[in-house]
Design a protein that fits this description.
257 residues, mainly alpha, two-stranded antiparallel ribbon, 4 strands, globular
Length: 257
């Protein structure tokens, strides 16, 4: 039945939950996430006030910002993409790519904070109208087993997923490279340029470069790959992923190569 009208006021620029009709519930024993959705659960109104995001610690700004970026990039290329979701995702990416560094360098920059918050919101709308991909499927087991913050987990996997997806959606990655005004000189394909840029943003934030630095045990990677293969977001990846593919992606992110 219809719920009482609700108002969402996000205090981070990351999840875009205020634009969605889904909630995530974590199992208290396995720590795996379950999605629960109903269009009637969507907020009636969302208030985006950059002032309330200023007091975020730097690592929260970085983690949530990278999560929002992953939302924009994955929703733009997923199998459920459509012209409306891609328009939202592309604009979200333009805002996020242009202002991520600024909010880290100057947390009081309200213009940059507002752009990040709007970008996160638009990316949330894009997810609502499409879906995500393998980077999110790979991230959830890392959070469940090691407590790695979601945005960091996604950002560690995203560059490898982008390179993996290149044969299927390289032209779409080219659109995103162009949208962000990224230089393509001597950096290979659009997928390589985009993946390297995500890695550079993680470096700017001072975040770990690979799973090994976070103490992930290489012997658990097959378990993580099996769990990732059960994640529903992976089903919408533009290039099909199975257990062997997911394991190879974990192994690449573990070594950082």
């Amino acid at each position: 039945k219809p719920m009482l009208p609700s108002i969402g006021v996000p205090t981070t620029a990351g999840t875009g939950s205020e634009a969605q009709s889904y909630a995530l519930i974590a199992d208290p024993e396995t720590h795996m996430k379950m999605a629960c959705g109903d269009r009637k659960a969507a907020f009636r109104i969302a208030i985006l006030d950059p002032v309330v995001t200023v007091t975020q610690p730097k690592h929260v700004t970085a983690d949530t910002g990278l999560d929002a970026i992953a939302h924009a990039l994955e929703s733009y290329v997923c199998t459920k993409r459509n012209p409306w979701s891609q328009m939202l995702a592309r604009e979200a990416w333009r805002l996020l790519a242009a202002h991520f560094r600024r909010v880290l360098e100057n947390p009081e920059d309200l213009e940059a904070r507002a752009a990040m918050q709007l970008g996160a919101h638009l990316a949330g709308q894009a997810i609502e109208l499409s879906m995500l991909g393998a980077a999110h499927a790979l991230a959830n087991p890392l959070t469940a087993h090691y407590g790695i913050v979601h945005g960091l987990a996604v950002s560690l996997m995203l560059p490898y997923v982008i390179r993996y997806n290149a044969p299927a959606v390289g032209d779409l990655y080219g659109d995103l490279v162009y949208t962000a005004g990224l230089s393509t000189e001597s950096k290979g394909s659009p997928a390589d340029v985009l993946a390297s840029y995500i890695e550079s943003l993680r470096g700017i934030a001072g975040l770990p470069r690979c799973l090994r630095e976070l103490g992930v045990n290489p012997h658990i990677l097959p378990v993580l790959a099996e769990e990732a293969s059960q994640q529903w977001t992976g089903r919408f990846n533009p290039r099909p992923v199975g257990y062997d593919d997911l394991l190879a992606l974990y192994q690449a992110s573990y070594s950082g190569v």
